[in-house]
Amino acid sequence: MEHLRKAVELVTVIDGSELNLSISIGVSRWLEDGAHFSQIYKTTDARLYQAKTLGRNKVITTLNEQPTINTEASIEVPTLN
């Protein structure tokens, strides 16, 4: 998810206009966070809300912890011309 967040964070130029995009992501794991879809959905939603509360543009994998941000993540994204 951190790779996805980083890819979206990159500046994109569309029709000559720069767009600065970001996403917040809440992550849940099947069985670890619940066995039923409703449990997983509720946990994921809570983590997404926490990511937004902490300033957005973050990945949250565990409630009440600081966001998981891998500053060493590298990603190759093709440029749009």
Tell me which oligomeric state these chains represent.
Answer: single chain
Strand composition percent:
5-15%
The assigned structural class equals alpha+beta
Q: Largest beta sheet: what is the strand line-up?
A: 1-2
- Determine Rg (CA atoms, Å): 15 Å
Number of helices: 2
Main sheet?
2 strands, antiparallel
Mean pLDDT reading: 80
Helix content: 25-40%
Apparent shape: elongated
Summarize the structure in words:
The structure is a single chain. This protein is α+β, with helices and mostly antiparallel strands. Helices cover 31% and strands 12% of the residues. The strands form two sheets. A two-stranded antiparallel sheet has the order 1-2. It has a two-stranded parallel ribbon with strand order 3-4. It is elongated, with a radius of gyration of 15 Å.
Short description:
The protein is an alpha+beta fold. It has helices at 2-9, 37-53; strands at residues 12-14, 17-19, 25-26, 59-60. It is elongated.
Write the topology of this structure.
Layout: H1 2-9, E1 12-14, E2 17-19, E3 25-26, H2 37-53, E4 59-60
Parallel strand pairs: 3-4
Antiparallel strand pairs: 1-2
Notable characteristics:
2 helices; 81 residues; 4 strands; alpha+beta; elongated; two-stranded antiparallel ribbon
